[in-house]
Amino acid sequence: MKSKKRIGIITVFLALLTTGLVYIYLNQVTATSKENQVEMTNVVVALSTIPAHVKVTAEMLEIKEIPVEAAHPDAFTSIEEVIGGITNTELIGGEQVLEERVVLDASDSPLAYRIPENMRAITVPTTEIDSIGGYIMPGDKLDILVSYTPSEGKQVVYTQLQNIEILEKGPYTTIADEQQTGVPTSLTLLVTPAQAEVIAYATLNGSFHFTLRNPVDTGKQDDPSYGTDNFDSWKER
What we know:
Elements: H1 2-36, E1 40-46, E2 61-67, H2 79-82, E3 86-87, E4 102-103, E5 120-125, E6 141-148, E7 156-169, E8 172-174, E9 180-184, E10 186-191, H3 193-205, E11 206-212, E12 226-227
Antiparallel strand pairs: 1-2, 3-4, 5-10, 6-7, 6-11, 7-10, 7-12, 8-9
């Protein structure tokens, strides 16, 4: 009877000991698992190869979960942030999309990214006299007058284009000691392809004059040409 009682006590003791050891082991495994757990984060990646100089759409991208240590600090984390941007280099499929690889803010980008679709940039020469003393600034609007001298020797001036935006001006002329003046040598204009043809023709065959507009004045006037043929009748216009 005493032997059975002793065996029962030993059995209970061993069971408690086993339970304790299992508990300790499981705690150690859990702690080790937490220590070895990799922290993950989401980044935007290219779904397939995206060529340079294309507008990014949602269908070109996907969200991928990767370890934090593998995420580039400049990688986008939201597809919505990238949509509408323009790639300035090719993106390989699966590559993280980085901020410097997509142009989102055109104002701080090269000129080509600031030109709206279906528009063109064209540069015309200018001087202090025909460019309003150099006071023209990027973003201003102007009218373009061109004077021609046809083969018969008569002179005529046309207001060829109106409400044309200036994209850039310069470079500036230099004087002694390589100091720059406030007068640019050229103006870069935002035009349609058809308007670019008119300006190219005027550059080859005429002389430019520019008139500066008030920013809120966007209307166009139907002015006839002025020159040798109607000089006497237009003493006061």
